[in-house]
Amino acid sequence: MHKVFLSLLMLLALPAHAALTVFATVPEWAALAQEIGGSRVRVYAATTGLQDPHRIEAKPSLIARARSAQLVVATGAELEAAWLPLVLRESGNRGVQPGTPGYFEAASAVTMLDVPQVLDRAHGDVHAAGNPHIQTDPHNIRKVAEALAERMVALDPAEAMAYRAGLQAFLGKWQAATARWEQAAAPLRGVPVLVQHNAFPYLTRWLGLKVVGTLEPKPGVEPSAAHLSALLGRLRDAPARMVLRPAYQHEASSRWLAERAGIPAVTLPFTVGGTPEAADLVGLFDDTVRRLLAALPVR
Amino acid sequence: MNKSSLTALAVALSCALPALPAGAATDADLAEIRAQLQQMKSAYEQRIATLEQKLAKAEGAAANAEAVAGEAVSAVRQASLRPPAAAPATGFNPEISLILQGQYRRMKEVDERRITGFWPAAGHDHDDHGHGADRRGYSLDHSELVFSANIDPYWRGQAVLALQDGEVEVEEAFFQSLALGHGLGLKGGRLRSGIGYLNEQHAHAWDFADAPLAYKAMFGEHGSYAQDGVQLKWVAPTPFFLEFGTDFGRGQNFPGTDRNRNGGNAGAFFAHVGDDLGSSHSWRAGVSYLQTRAKDREAHFADAGGGDEAVGGFAGRSRTWIADFVWKWAPDGNPKYRNFKLQGEYFVRRERGTFTCSNEEQDLGNSCDPGNAGASVVSDYRSRQSGWYLQGVYQFSPNWRAGLRYDRLDSGRRDFGVNAANLVADEHKPKRVTLMADYRWSEFARMRLQFAQDKSMRGLTDNQVWLQYIMSLGAHGAHKF
Q: Which of A139, B66, B71, B452 has the most CB atoms around it within 10 Å of its CB?
């Protein structure tokens, strides 16, 4: 009851021109909105870096946050299909329904990879619009930043200058950082890797890593012992140099395979907060590149 | 002809010429010839250079064309692979999902299966087996067809049809607002009431093969209260979840009856509050109230004098209070590998009105109708009954879950007035313990094994076994928390 009273009091105390309230489905878009908006936005991240964004429930806390949001930033491409449509409907907030300016999908700003040839559930958790894990390529982050800033300008024109300045500052920093990552990651070009979940097509394309196998037999299906053994057998002919896993997935299967194949299992932060080092967007890629390079054998 | 062969020809010519007999020409002639040759050479070289440029241009254009064509091909492929957007006519079709649900069930043979001490929701038909849920052996329990889609920017529609042999039952069919704003949500049509926790969930979303006893006793075999009417909800603009709602309408279902009148017959209010505790815990709790009226709501009672079964008809007001909570835990809020869900609901129902006791058969008699058909005894009726359940389900691997449920009802106080002397009002405190384990291949396919020790009928312990499958085809929408 105390909490109810306090929050009602807080509502009354809100200034006339409040900050733009942003509801981001995943931490990377929360971080990006914060970079662009600075003190002019109040950002809520619906998930943490340790949660599988496919498998979130339409929790009451999410409905409450969506109720008061002015801008919902989602990845789209069905990544949040299991919970976001319900959360938005239940929130009773007409400003953030799909199709309105208050609903932004990051996937609409980038070119999608892995668009399936056939839509059939026999192939596991396939996404009709393509692989939704777009945040693992810094060039995608840049494209999303540009589109997101324009959307923020459209929703809050009074602060247009500030959002554009925030975008420019971010892009300047981002360009320099991207060049630094690409230079540092040069030794990774052509390195054959295994992935636990098909979560890295954008990362591997960006860095030129070669994916030679996936631990999950189908997207979203846990690997069986038989499947892993078969994969291990195949490694003799086409060896991989490391196994990649997003931080939110269990390490059991990638560790099992890595130990037997004698290669390192690499946990990648995948999003902001996935590892302690990935505290912001720059940290996310710093840590990703660092972890990949650390797994390369010294020559 | 390429550059190198032309050059070779020129070089060969210029080398061969000096070998001509020296005496045949003067130095001046020679010089002239050399000059001419030089001219020819430079002319050839110019032409070669021009040709080379042309060639390079053509090559560049070809490469360009190839790249453009490649881009076009991939663009076309991408476009053609986005089926909903690109498919011309079917794109606007609703999302359709079909839920296949069936079971093997082993239990005692009981003539008229009903919870002792409680008013049977299915009325007084001897041969009514409810929803197929109480069938023994193999049965197609409940196949549901769900259609849903946005109607326009302002409305969304959904229909849930239950398919059974020879009939299609409309479980839900409603429109829902998308654009009221201010936290408001409006639904209209046939809908499951927002009361309680489990009430809005369809059978395929249950964690056990059947509904809690309290739901069966309070709302009947569907384990849910639904009516034709309107629902209005409001989500408060608070940082935690706070929701108030009401629904009202025809109230045609148990504990009310269809009363053939212009006004509404049932109204419900509910309030829900919920939030997260850290990233690993989420919860929701609620209080609900349902009021409805019944007329000629019939049930069979044993005759106090050992004569014919008496038919009791209730007319009056039925009021139900529900308190519910659910708490979910998942390490770091990531439920894929391990999670735990604890839920419980408590029900109290008070009914007040008149009770009419009569005899159905014409020939024999009972205490209410000793011989002369058509006679009946009318009395006051008051009751207070309650029930609750508590259940926990633990998912210990991505595929396996196990659950335990405890059900308890109390037939409480039932005051039949003067009719208390005419019929036998059973008192009972039904109990049931249920254990289940289920395996899921994916979020669309599940198989469940369940054991229950059911003491809902007095003097009978029914050990029941289920083997159930739930499969869903097609576009399956998100489930509620």
A: B452
